[in-house]
Specification:
The structure holds 2 protein chains of 2 kinds. By secondary structure, chain A is mostly helical. Chain A has one domain: Transmembrane di-heme cytochromes, Chain C (Fumarate Reductase Cytochrome B subunit, Up-down Bundle). Chain A contains 9 helices and 2 strands. Chain A has a two-stranded antiparallel ribbon with strand order 1-2. The two termini of chain A are 21 Å apart. By secondary structure, chain B is an alpha+beta fold. Chain B folds into 2 domains: 51 residues, no CATH class; 175 residues, Sulfite Oxidase, Chain A, domain 2 (Alpha-Beta Complex). In chain B, the strands form 3 sheets. A 5-stranded mixed β-sheet of chain B has the order 4-3-12-7-8. In chain B, strands 5, 6, 9, 10 and 11 form a 5-stranded antiparallel β-sheet that branches. In chain B, strands 1-2 form a two-stranded antiparallel sheet. In chain B, helix 1 runs antiparallel to helix 2. Chain B is globular, with a radius of gyration of 18 Å. The chains are: A mainly alpha, B alpha+beta. The interface between A and B is large, with 34 and 38 residues. Protoporphyrin IX containing FE binds next to helix 1, helix 3, helix 5, helix 8 and helix 9 of chain A. The site of protoporphyrin IX containing FE has 22 residues of chain A, from helix 1, helix 3, helix 5, helix 8 and helix 9.
Chain lengths: 228, 247
């Protein structure tokens, strides 16, 4: 590591982050509305309200929320995917992915991980856990889980429910094991992303939240680089 | 096909040009339009899918033993229309399907005449916008064959289809002439049941179930649907759904 420099978020990170965060909210709300038409999950190709399900969710069946739900879901998906693609491309090209997001060797030592977890549980970071010169390891792992696993699975399983896309790429059915399997995996990935968001907000809350939020909005955390 | 891919390019470039931001958004020249942001996202989806489908692939087909035991039926399951009831009582022997508009020889086909045409059987996955899906086997005559036998005029760009229960929808030639777009009179080896749209329903396999109209009443070829009703291209789009349902 180079010596501590003030931690900054480049403009492209901030823009795509807040656009993506907004689109994620509307995706979650509209996805829930769509789910209500068939609050059951299946494996394989087929399934309906009167066929046996893997899981019957404790939600009321409501067929009236599909229209606005789908409209909002697809426009949000376009925004989320396009801003996510921009972010992913920039992260690769600028080296951000390796420099900022890949955990450093020292961060992965068991002792260091254990003390990070302990710091988070106390919501009282003794040393700049983040907001210093780098993200802490727990943050990095959470971000990588989203970028490398959850978001791609979300996108691909969503596309597997599209009859147009699968006519062009039937391999998607093979990848997920059928349309209803893709729907189930789409739901599980959404669950994973919501879980990430809760952890994400907790990690921010545990690390001088105002400073971090100011950093993510203006680019500079403000105050002294080390916090204090 | 050359014509279609040229249109696909036009479509793509108009989506990239963000023309839709200005007022209503016309997805295809002379086609349906939808105002606002949802019009923009519909256009992006249509342009993208037209690009992905530019070689006109077939939707997946299954062996007969994959057919679902339960195939849900929604909306109308037995039209409450006097003409339909009378026709149903006679085994649809007096039923006729008029094909009109931009064709050289407008014709009204009987069920027997449709069954005498070259048939196609396809076992496919039906995906409903409500989330359910089921596999069914469909037998019928390709719409492209029926249109060709009436002499589809070169100006024709859209096919408007109406059903006895008042539903209607439109399809541009890209989908209307696709080999899996059939007028189905058979299901799972037998006659098409009333609950599934007897005597004849449409199958459009690369879009959601709501594009596969049941209880067909008429077919009309036209050069534009922008002037039809509210200009949205279908009845469901007047209810807030997308005209193009490939997603
Ligand atoms: C309203 C909810 C959200 C808030 C308040 C929020 C807040 C923040 C803050 C303050 C940071 C910077 C942390 C630091 O400097 O240590 C950050 C980074 C990040 N957030 Fe969020 N976030 C939200 C939603 C989301 C969502 C929904 C996602 C993804 C689905 C997400 C993904 C990320 C990623 C990947 C980073 C790292 C960015 C980078 O440096 O490349 N966030 N977030």
């Amino acid at each position: 590591m180079r010596p501590a420099e003030p931690f900054r978020h480049p403009l492209w990170v901030r823009l795509t982050h807040w656009i993506g965060a907004g689109a994620f909210m509307t995706l979650a709300v509209s996805g829930f509305a769509i789910l209500l038409a068939l609050p059951r999950l299946f494996w394989g190709e087929t399934g309906s309200n009167d066929s046996p399900a893997w899981i019957v969710l404790p939600l009321p069946v409501n067929l009236e929320q599909t229209g606005w739900g789908r409209n909002l879901h697809f426009i949000s998906a376009w925004v989320f995917v396009l801003s996510g693609a921009l972010y992913g491309l920039a992260a690769l090209v600028t080296g951000h992915l390796f420099r900022r997001l890949a955990p450093d060797r020292d961060q992965l030592r068991p002792g260091s991980l254990v003390s990070e977890v302990r710091d988070h549980l106390h919501i009282r970071p003794p040393e700049p856990v983040s907001g210093g010169e780098r993200y802490n390891a727990l943050q990095k792992l959470a971000y990588l889980a989203v970028l490398l696993v959850l978001a791609p699975v979300m996108l691909l399983s969503g596309l597997t429910m599209s009859p147009g896309v699968t006519a062009a790429y039937p391999e998607l059915f093979t990848l997920f094991g059928g349309r209803q399997s893709a729907r189930t995996i789409h739901f599980l990935a959404a669950f994973g992303l919501v879980a990430f968001l809760l952890v994400h907000l907790w990690q921010v809350a545990a690390n001088r939240p105002l400073r971090l939020l100011r950093g993510m909005i203006t680019g500079r955390p403000g105050g002294k680089a080390e916090g204090a | 096909m050359v014509e279609i891919s040229r249109r696909g390019l036009l479509l793509g470039s108009s989506a990239l040009g963000l023309a839709p931001w200005l007022g209503g958004c016309e997805l295809i020249e002379g086609g349906p339009s939808r105002p606002g942001l949802y019009g923009l996202s519909d256009t992006l989806t249509l342009a993208t899918q037209r690009f992905l489908l530019r070689d006109q692939p077939l939707a997946r087909e299954f062996p007969a033993d994959a057919i679902s035991k339960v195939f849900p039926t929604i909306n109308t399951t037995d039209p409450d229309n006097p003409d339909y009831r009378r026709s149903k009582a006679q085994g649809f022997s007096d039923w006729r399907l008029p094909v009109s508009g931009l064709v050289e020889r407008p014709t009204a086909f009987s069920l027997t005449e449709l069954k005498a045409m070259p048939a196609r059987t396809q076992v496919t996955l039906h995906s409903c916008e409500q989330g359910w899906s089921a596999i069914g086997g469909w037998t019928g005559v390709p719409l492209s064959h029926v249109l060709a036998s009436c002499g589809l005029k070169p100006e024709a760009r859209f096919i408007v289809i109406r059903s006895v229960d008042g539903w209607w929808d439109s399809y541009d030639l890209f989908d209307a002439l696709h080999p899996q777009t059939i007028l189905a009179y058979g299901m799972n080896g037998g006659d098409l049941p009333v609950a599934h749209g007897a005597p004849v329903r449409l199958r459009v396999e690369r879009q959601l179930g709501y594009k596969s109209l049941k209880y067909l009443a008429s077919i009309e070829a036209t050069d534009r649907v922008s002037g039809l009703s509210q200009g949205r291209g279908s009845m469901v789009s007047e209810l807030g759904f997308s005209w193009y349902a490939g997603i």
